[in-house]
Amino acid sequence: MAHKVLIVDDSKLARMVMASSLRRIRPDWTLVEATNSDEALAAVAKESVDIALVDFNMPGIDGLELLARVRTAYPAMPVAVVSANMQDEIISRARELNAAFIAKPLTDEALGSFLSGAALRLKTAAR
Amino acid sequence: MTIRRADDGTIHLEGACPVEDAEPLLQLLLASPKSPVDWSQCQKPHTAVVQVLMAAGAVPTGPCGDGWIAKWL
Amino acid sequence: MNELQQQFVTEARELVRQATDDLISLERDSTSAAHIDRVFRAFHTLKGSAGVVELPAMTLLLHAAEDLLTAVRGGSVAANGEIVDLSLACLDQVSRWVDDFEEAAALPADAGEAARSMAERLRTFLPADNAAVVAPAPKVTAPVAKGETADWVVRLLDRSRDKIAEHLRSGTTTLHSIAYEPIPGCFFNGDDPLELMRQVPGLLAFHIEPREPFPPLAELDPYACNLRLQAIAASERDDIFKIFRMVPDQVRIATVPESALPSAPVSAKPAQDASLIHIVLEAQLELLRVTDKPEGLAGRIGAARRTALNALRSGGLTSIADAVERNDAVSDAIEQALAGLTTSTAPDTPRTDTGDRPAERMLRVSEDKIEALVNLAGELIVAKNALAHSVKATGGTGDAALRRDQDAIDRLVIELHGSILQLRMISVAQVFRSFPRLIRDVARQLNKTVNLVTQGENTEADKTIVDRLFEPMVHLVRNAVDHGIETPEQRSAAGKPEQATITIAASRAGDRFHVDVHDDGRGIDPSAIRRRAADKQLLPADELAALTDEHVIDLIFAAGFSTAETISDVSGRGIGMDVVRTAVERMGGRVTLASKVGAGTSVRLDMPMTISMSRIMVVQAGGQSFGISMDAVSETVRLSPDRINRIKNNEGFVLRDQVVPVVSLAELMRLPVNPAAASRLFLIAESGGRTAAFEIDAIGERLEVVLKPMQGLLSGARGYAGTTLLGNGQVLLVLDVKEIMP
Which label site among C97, C507, C586, C642 has the fewest CB atoms less than 10 Å from its CB? Predict the structure, then answer.
């Protein structure tokens, strides 16, 4: 089943990387891009986003804070923090939010694993 | 789908068996618990798939197509 | 370069610029959390971008810088000037590398070394305990005392006794035990526990078992992980931890105490390069694939098996070798061995290819192509002028159709030329961007505080002009900070704000392009200039005395003039405003200066929008035609001989209260001088702050021409700005007024 993935990152390069990886792995899925948390929240409210991939380091509301807000409205949405900050604190905060952590530089493998798990979660939840 | 049952009843695991293959594999094994399993063409089976095989007590015939799995499992 | 790499270059430059600005703001307000955050984020994003295009040296350097900024953000390191200096130096390096990368799609060979040494310098500023804050703290339990080794570790060690013994013979790496209990929901997060184990280097023993006994198959939840994975590996604990860094709460890594190890035999054998084994195995496969010579097949199979076994065993890969030996199908066995080799030795490299994406609706055209167009259009102008000449030569018989067509061609050529020149127009923003940094560095060196205001960054001018603008502007800005701006103490004593302001502004005025550099410093004192000019004997005393204050200030543009009381390493010695004037005049511009003692100084660079076309006036002297740039011509005057005064051997006249020396152009060009006529014609020219009257015989047309630099034998000749081809095919020498000024 095709899903809609929200990509949030203030770097266009990073979004390009995520988008092209996503297109390789799941060519039939659609994606929505946002350059900051405010745009992301607007996108989540407006479009039926299934999965969110969020950069940690963003101006204003950071990625974890954004996910915490998304979580209140969508407790079961598969979400991932994408970051080059390999800090325990960020990883454990992601874990508390039940969010996956994907390391930058992004690899097809890492993203592919997350998307498989996400698809599985969405499928299991639908039953 | 990288899990299939051949006409002779053997369950074949082929190619990369991703996480979502665990459930169909489980269904096949539930339907015929004694089916032989062939994973000689399998590459990088996901842990969930391996777990189903372990839970079913299935002993695949021949080494796994994945070198690492063949070596360590 | 692919699209990602291009985006990297664009984005990296923007991030460097942004980080530079923020660092400068941060220095001014070192407690501002917003600035620190912005700087940190820029460095962090840069680091990530460098990773995407796989530039390990840049990643390494930025990582060190990021660590330092993390400490600054955390408050354990103060954002002082030194830290800002170093961070800026780091950005300079990155900026150079981005240029290199754009040029060659790679970093220079010394990048790794440069990155390491700079990273080391950055790290010297880190507090000693900071490393623990920054790097993920590996959760490694202390080596357990003898007799306390976990049962499972003992079991695994025992089971893999041979392999471990073999390892102990060849390597010195400490053994670590890994206990990994994935959380039940881990599959939903995309975790694949076996995949992680697969990445552990130096794996010696591995075991997998259910954490709780499996329920009957019918009740099994296939997506709830109920496993425990255990392993022994001969690798550094940091390397192991890196693999499990996403699941630190689910894994325990411990050092295997030596006492628990099987006793180590003596002989040591270096582990062979896995890639070599790989090559050997692949060669064997290749050999076996040769099927057109069935006669020697059995022999080849035996040889291939033996070679493969030897290679594997010599590399210490006994278990793979054993598998090859057991398997009768040699090809399959070697293929499997290769697969095992690949998965256990080669880490997966991240892929960064772009895939298919629509290109942006922007064309990138190389400068060369634009240059070729500009040249063609220039020649078209010459052809247009030639056509006008030919039409005139028909005697003006009044062929209306010919006239009409010629007018149309004229108009189109001019339009085409204008449009093509537009392609070369770029904004000055790029040049202006360098100044916050420059001013900051110079001001810091001199203990002054200066705020920069920029205006009109989007003003466009020809690329050549914009490119050449930088150097004179650097001089002006340095001079402003060094000589113009007072020290904070002097400023407050004078009742001015301690922080000085320098304004750089670009604007358009008709077909001219203006850049103003203004400072609110002490201004230029005319009497000081007079003193210095007298000291340096720039002018005879009487002439100097006759100059108004305004003109005296202009003397700072004279060669060899320097107003600094002391020589500073900022403005240096001998590099004065004359350099600015020369540079600006070389591109057909003028420099003017206005200053008020105590209030500040303004310098205006008045330049053409483009230097591709020059407006010249054709004049006759000594029977020859010459071109003179209109930029230098202020007016032409016709005077009766009695208006001319002779002072010794020199002639001159008074024009609007100013004495203007007369120069005979014919004499200057060593041409026969025409006998004096009833009235004499002069062309008044200004350059370098001086005025002269060039005597000429006649004034010809005014033309828009493409000036070509002097070439061949004449390339060294002084006094000429270049040549241009006239419509009638004649080559016109265009004079460089500055050079022929008396």
Answer: C642
